[in-house]
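Reminder to self: tokens first, then the designed residues, so the page reads top to bottom the way the pipeline ran.
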């Protein structure tokens, strides 16, 4: 079963974007490594939600619909369970709407909240609301001239055949495939690393091709976001694609051995040596790959987390086995 939720940024309405809950990892933060946890807020949760809590943009907000909340006794039971969790600043349960609102100082507290409510014997609806710092962001291009460039982005909205054709037409080259979400800072930083490989490390290497597939995750990350950032890619050896429905990302679950419940591949960086051909419906397994995902959600190994030095070495090794055209 796929759990989903609604996610919003600190300045938007709490009825905004819908996306897959399992993909909401800490690496979505727009704060570039800044820990959103405020050490002064490590207190037991209060059932009082005053304006200082509700309007604090540094806090994370969760709202759950409880399916079997039927009496004041239910509310008392849920409140007792939540009051035992460190890092919660406030919570409130409402019998009329069967909802529970929680404010926390860390995104990771959502797991503790879910576990506490379930341990108390209550079931939650699969759809819930979440808000907090860094869950959505508009990332500005590093290159001020990028906004002036008009870069073609080929759409994979209904079919991935165009990507497959380009991939196979460059079978005599080493191919780097990346799947960034244009609203995810972690993804954009990963893509900028790939851009830098082409611009500097392998600037004159004609045996290398790049395939950037900008991925939207249930509406999180838009074509507008992709058009704002894609022009940072100036190398003619690199293709740009737009995958609004995660068609390619879902196909990559199999060769990357992602958990079955995971929505699809994103924030991944793949290397294919020359000679690897895509045959059939599923993409071939990469020669080497790394990621910036959370292993507790996706099932990927932590030793594959993107290391720029290792990735560069693997690109060089793939090129060493590739003949000059």
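Designed residues (325 positions):
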């Amino acid at each position: 079963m796929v759990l989903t939720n609604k996610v919003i940024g600190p300045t938007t309405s709490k009825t905004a974007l819908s996306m897959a809950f399992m993909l909401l990892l800490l690496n979505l933060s727009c704060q570039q490594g800044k820990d959103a946890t405020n050490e002064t807020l490590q207190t037991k949760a209060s059932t009082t939600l005053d304006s200082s809590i509700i309007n604090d943009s540094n806090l994370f907000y969760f709202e759950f619909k409880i399916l079997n909340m039927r009496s004041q006794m239910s509310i008392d039971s849920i409140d007792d369970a939540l009051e035992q969790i460190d890092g919660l600043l406030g919570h409130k349960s409402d019998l009329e709407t069967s909802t529970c609102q929680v404010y926390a100082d860390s995104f990771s507290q959502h797991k503790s909240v879910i576990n506490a409510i379930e341990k108390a014997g209550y079931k939650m609806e699969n759809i819930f609301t979440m808000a907090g710092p860094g869950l959505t962001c508009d990332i500005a291009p590093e290159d001020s001239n990028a906004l002036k460039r008009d870069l073609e982005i080929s759409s994979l909205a209904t079919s991935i055949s165009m990507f497959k054709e380009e991939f196979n037409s460059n079978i005599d080259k080493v191919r780097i495939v990346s799947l960034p979400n244009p609203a995810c800072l972690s993804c954009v930083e990963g893509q900028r690393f790939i851009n830098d490989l082409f611009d500097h490390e392998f600037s004159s290497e004609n045996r290398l091709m790049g395939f950037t597939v900008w991925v939207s995750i249930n509406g999180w990350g838009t074509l507008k976001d992709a058009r704002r950032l894609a022009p940072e890619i100036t190398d003619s050896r690199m293709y740009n694609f737009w995958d609004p429905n995660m068609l390619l990302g879902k196909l990559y679950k199999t060769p990357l051995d992602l958990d079955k419940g995971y929505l699809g591949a994103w924030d991944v960086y793949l290397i294919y040596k020359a000679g690897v051909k895509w045959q059939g419906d599923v993409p071939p397994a990469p020669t080497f790959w790394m990621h910036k995902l959370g292993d507790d959600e996706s099932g990927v190994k932590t030793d594959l987390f993107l290391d720029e030095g290792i990735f560069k070495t693997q690109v060089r090794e793939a090129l060493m086995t590739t003949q000059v055209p």
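Confidence is low (pLDDT under 50) at residues 1-44.
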